[in-house]
């Protein structure tokens, strides 16, 4: 007993020494029974957290806070590192979790598969299923023999479906590999539709999968397989889906899907197409893999020598790091990767900072603020969905916030995401929330100097590079690129988007844009200023630039540069918007008009007024039930909305159906159509054009040919537009700081 007491006293003494020195040390070669000193580090993040908790029970934090130093190496998490109120710092004494300088710390939700576990394929049955060229290149490893038994499940996901953790994925040299698919590039078009299946969007929940004729005979190689999946857009070019195949009939040349798609199945349009995947026979090029879920055998064609590379598989479904109620915590200089769910999750608390981190190769979102919503229905549903708020999961967040636009997702306040790289994620890059929409209280959360790209490996349309909701949050100096889908997707009020660089997004989808907001007139006061948008959109698809969708109001687009916007529905597009101002921008070589306004309640949505404005209408519920637009703070902050629901013709037409007070004012336009505004829908498609300068010549850029759009001091635009402000072009995009020491060329 005396020896045990002595050992305990020594342990406690070492703990105090470590903490009083403001240092706790972690090493992958340490032991959790160690005191956490530099000489005797603990071996896990959880042990470091527990040392911190023990110390703060009896001691105040040292002046300047306390740092947990993490040595370089891999730290595989079998459960989330959860930091709560007990792990908080103070405004002047933060708790800092950081990598040792110059060392790479990789916090993973997966496991390494050693190179020696991979062997040549010898099973003749498997070899017969592989193509001739693949037989000598594909390797195999038995995951079950390595103790990896939880493979997860491939589930239906897509438009209006919950975001769920990914199944097991395979990564090689920190890049996601491709689950064997057909075709290797492009898509297969849907043939003649025999039965579109049930249409949940129309409240048909009979759960009947569609039936259609296939157009490619390669389908016959998959007959009899039970886990073939199709991912694509089955009816509309914005509604992605991922659906299991029930059967393939080579006699009728028909495919039957196991589940419905939200809008049913259609054909005849180029975007009604899909890829087939999870098929061993299609493992036919480097970078592809396949998992036999019965035997646990993984088959992999490595892109380079497997002996010199690193193979990892994802296992953890919970967030890899989760801050839940913690405050004044700094997470910096870490690589967080290879999980099935969220990389870093933040809920409640105040003043946390994620800085200089790389978050990559996760199954859902990279960094996620606020709660999600748990699915409460058995099938795919329509927009008017109600879920149950839940922590650490995304679920059907988009459906829940569609119904409850005022939802306070408990994201906390004054959190920052600074100088991080987020890429190769499954369901969007960063999701920011915070603030109270009913009371118009700002969250003051921000994302700054972050690079976000390749963020739609799984979920597509609603999952942007950066999503934001709530009130009073800021996105600045970020670079967002490499997506066929959305750049930024917005709900809420008085957010600020400034000095961002957004390019090469919205490349192969419909009804999408680099920046989107819509269908809630109370989402007012949002500002886009000093951003650089270029090479966005696809002239063959239905894209918009700044997309102020159904009934958007009060957006200021000021001082931005738009170059080569291939968005055929305009650089700015609105459906019946109010109080939209586009001022002092430079629009250079646009494919289409600078501003396009559609009076859609009088054109393609003719007769839809009652469903939006009537007694049970969507917009009426949003303005009078979710919030009270006729009472403070809305009636005082936004008096321009006071007439929005007033009837013009009782039961048929309301004020909000007509676009009002929109203006294109004092913009420089180089190229594009002669008339900068295109009006769709006659007299109700209001958008004024005032004092804009359009030219086909160089208006005075410093170096037009090489894309330097700073203006010379005596540029022609200053003569043509009185008061035109020269734009801070060089300040748009990423900048150097202590976390981001180099910039892309």
From TrEMBL:
<dbReference type="InterPro" id="IPR012334">
    <property type="entry name" value="Pectin_lyas_fold"/>
</dbReference>
<dbReference type="InterPro" id="IPR039448">
    <property type="entry name" value="Beta_helix"/>
</dbReference>
<dbReference type="Pfam" id="PF13229">
    <property type="entry name" value="Beta_helix"/>
</dbReference>
<keyword id="KW-0732">Signal</keyword>
<dbReference type="InterPro" id="IPR011050">
    <property type="entry name" value="Pectin_lyase_fold/virulence"/>
</dbReference>
<protein>
    <submittedName>
        <fullName>Right handed beta helix region</fullName>
    </submittedName>
</protein>
<feature type="domain" description="Right handed beta helix">
    <location>
        <begin position="464"/>
        <end position="588"/>
    </location>
</feature>
<feature type="signal peptide">
    <location>
        <begin position="1"/>
        <end position="18"/>
    </location>
</feature>
<dbReference type="InterPro" id="IPR006626">
    <property type="entry name" value="PbH1"/>
</dbReference>
